[in-house]
Structures are given as structure tokens and as C-alpha cells.
Amino acid sequence: MAAEHGIAEGAWVLALETPTLPPATATNTLVVGGDRLLIVEPATPHPRERARLDALIASLLAEGRALAGIVVTHHHVDHIGYAPGLRDAHEIPIFAHPQTASRLEFAVDTHIDEGWTIDLGGGHVVEALFTPGHAPGHLVIWDRKTDVAHAGDLVAGEGTILVDVSDGGDMGVYLDSLRRMAGHVRRLQAEGRSPAFVPAHGPVLPDPVAVLDHYVSHRLAREDKIRRAVIEGKSRAFLGILAAAYDDVPKHLWPIAAMSVEAHLRKLVADGELVRAGKGARPARG
């Protein structure tokens, strides 16, 4: 069982069905460690899927390992479903960022933030990296031995990442988190290391820098379409800006795209390029 799901020495991944957004249908749970194990993102609410994770945990415990705790990367419903149940079943703590804890309906045992580490034995030291933007308390959870990181919803192996301002998302902060993680991975690669990201959704990403750089360039390209729509006067009403910025996207996806438009508009206002005009925007100058 353990070998079947191993992606590195001391790292196992299960994609478990969750109530997430299409095209994704599952959220990845990472189990990592040596003598002690950390369960990152036990997200599924479904009994059959929980049984799959229970079986993996049982096989690892049968090898003489112990459980050290549970980490959730952020508060969204497709990332937290089995955390309270596992805590109760194994009497282990849940770790989360304070801003995540404040948004959950269940209690978090220990607040963690940038710089938090836990020694799991066998050289496995796991650290938390604060990566807000998609969600206020978002964390990337990194095993320094394997250089396998659970990236949460910083990036995805399938689908896209939404930045919903109504739920604490912030596009400028998100872009900063992407750039910061790209710099972090580049430094590790310069040392001859080979980091890999386990995204919350989709396959393991063996080249995180390429993915992170693509996310930044894609978001900035979309932002430029929004900027030009407003500044060149093509449209300054929200729906017109949406149509101009997402003219390459089917209309049935526009309700989701509208979240990104709002997030980009707020960033452009914060950057001093635009001012709001009703739900839309106009240039800050001229």
C-alpha cells in the first residue's frame, strides 16, 4: 500500500474525491515524514475516499511509524473535509495559519506561520512558507529532505486558481507569492536540488519554476487586457471589461472569470492606474 503511493522516500500522495471546482474532481493528500508522519490536506468528506486514506495510514503505522499531526493549507471546503475526523480518530493536532483558523468551523490546535518547522525524523524537517493571495492564510508545506512541497492552491496541475476578493483573495498579494516561490525554487535548483510540487489538484509538478512563471505571465497578460479595455476606452462598465478580457473564454465560464476581473481591477486601483466607476473603472489620469 505505502509503496504504491510513494513519490519519494518518505512522501506518499493520494488523490481523493472532493467537492472541488471542475475540471478537477479530487484534492491531493500528502503524507510525509520518517519515524513520525504529517498528513497534509486530508480533504475528502466522502466515506469511501476516507477509507483509502485510512488504509494508507494503517500500512504506514504498521511499519512502526507514528502520526505527528495534520496540516491544512487554507480554509476552503475542498481542503479540509477529513481533518476533524482524523484528529478525533488518532488524537493528533491540527496545524493551520491563524487566518485559516479564524475561517474554519472547527478548532485548530496549533497556529503556524512562516518559519514554523517540525522534525519528523530520518532527516525529514517540514517547514511552512506563508503564501497568501488565493486565501489569506495560505501555506506551502515543504519537506526539506525530499524537496517535495504540498503547494495547496498556489498552483494547480489541472484547472486554474481563482482569486476571489469576496473570500479574502488578493491578486497583487497572490502574484507576489508566486514570484517569491519561483525565487525560492530557483535558489534550491542552483544548489543542485530538484524540488517538486504536489498541487492540491492534478498531477505532481516536477518543474515548479516553469509553472510558477507561467502563472505570473498568464495573470499579467489577462491584467493587461483589462487595463487596455479601460484606458483605451473600449469599455469601462464591468460587463464590457469582462467581455474584452475574456473574449477567448466560453461565455458559460464568465461568472468564474468575473471573479478574476474584480481581483485585477482592485489591484490596478491599488497600483494607482485606475479608479472605480460604479462596478467598472476608468483611468486614474486623463
Label the overall shape.
elongated
Task: Output the CATH homologous superfamily of the largest domain.
Answer: Ribonuclease Z/Hydroxyacylglutathione hydrolase-like
The helical percent reads 25-40%
Order of adjacent strands in the largest pleated sheet: 1-2-3-4-5-6-7
CATH architecture of the largest domain: 4-Layer Sandwich
Q: How many discrete structural domains?
A: 2
Main sheet: strands, sense, barrel:
7 strands, mixed
Structural class: alpha/beta
End-to-end separation in angstroms reads: 65 Å
Low-confidence stretches: none
Oligomer: single chain
Keywords: Hydrolase
Enzyme class: hydrolase
Protein name: Hydroxyacylglutathione hydrolase
EC number: 3.1.2.6
Q: What does this 3D model show about the protein?
A:
The structure is a single chain. Strands 1-2-3-4-5-6-7 form a seven-stranded mixed β-sheet. The mean pLDDT is 96. It contains eight helices and 14 strands. The protein folds into two domains: 2-206, Ribonuclease Z/Hydroxyacylglutathione hydrolase-like (Metallo-beta-lactamase, Chain A); 219-283. The chain is an alpha/beta fold and 286 residues long.
